[in-house]
């Protein structure tokens, strides 16, 4: 579910509760109308200006947002370090909803790579991509004990194996093998993950924060 859809659902729920409970507690219908107008106006502004990610932008700007952004930075640092080891070119790394919004990317963070020359890849190339695309989740697990990001990585990885003509069982087996390999590699590079994440975090834009020099 997208953040815009979730926000809309919350507004509808609150309006419904207000319509039912309002008369019981003496709430004037006028206040309910004002609340509906403000809610719909906020949704429209969020969709028009922030691509439906206004809630994420606000969460990252609040005092606790640094921890949220650090987790994203850890995830992206895992991708970047694994890509360097596997010879894949990293074009840019974005951390946080504001950075992604400015780049026209609908995400809270992403690492962009140079595209392969063909959508049909060899088994060896697919193994490299399997290590790199799973490295973000692995980095999160090493630092936090589990991962909350990575749905897009898993989906892309599945498409790459499918487009290259491999059956599902082979793809799953190779991805499990690649995950074990990248887990072992990144376990020995924990300090590098955290250092790279800190560098990315310092460069990440946030509302109410001056850009780094």
Care to describe what's here?
This is ATP-dependent Zn protease. Keywords: Coiled coil. It comes from Cyanobium gracile UHCC 0281. InterPro entries: Peptidase_M41-like. Residues 168-203 form a coiled coil. With 213 residues, this protein is mainly alpha-helical. The protein is 69% helix and 5% strand. It is built from 9 helices and 2 strands; from the N terminus they run ααααβαβαααα. It has helices at 3-21, 29-50, 54-61, 65-86, 97-102, 123-144, 151-163, 168-187, 190-203; strands at residues 90-95, 109-113. Strands 1-2 form a two-stranded antiparallel sheet. α1 (3-21) runs antiparallel to α2. 31% of the residues are buried. Mean pLDDT is 79; it is low at 1-11 and 40-52.
Short structural description:
With 213 residues, the chain is mainly alpha-helical. The protein is 69% helix and 5% strand.
The SS-based structural class is mainly alpha
User: Which consecutive residue ranges, at least 5 long each, have pLDDT under 50?
Assistant: 1-11, 40-52
Helix content: 55-70%
What distance lies between the first and last C-alpha atoms, to the nearest angstrom?
A: 37 Å
Set out the fold topology.
Layout: H1 3-21, H2 29-50, H3 54-61, H4 65-86, E1 90-95, H5 97-102, E2 109-113, H6 123-144, H7 151-163, H8 168-187, H9 190-203
Antiparallel strand pairs: 1-2
